[in-house]
Amino acid sequence: MIKRMVLYIGNPENSRQLKRIGYVMLLITVVADFFVERHHAHYIWDKIPGWGAFYGFVSCVVIILVSKFIGHQGGIMKKEDYYD
Fold first, then answer.
1. Would you say the pTM of this structure is higher than 0.70?
2. Interacting residues of 83 by C-beta distance below 8 A, sequence separation 6+
3. Is the pLDDT of residue 78 over 80?
4. Which helix (H) or strand (E) is 79 found in, with range?
5. How many angstroms separate the CA atoms of 26 and 49, rounded?
């Protein structure tokens, strides 16, 4: 079963459907956040519906960009023929 899932996700023909599923899941997360009670919010931004999804998305993008910058500009990545 795992093999079938990996082959399905890795197949470029399914990318459009997988993107739609991802967008629907994100939309459901944001819409569901409007129904959560916020009695114990410690900070003002904790009361904003959808803040957790937005903050998580932005955090992931920042982590990816910083990692790519460190890899390419910091000299961590080497060319493919480095050992040749």
1. no
2. none
3. no
4. none
5. 13
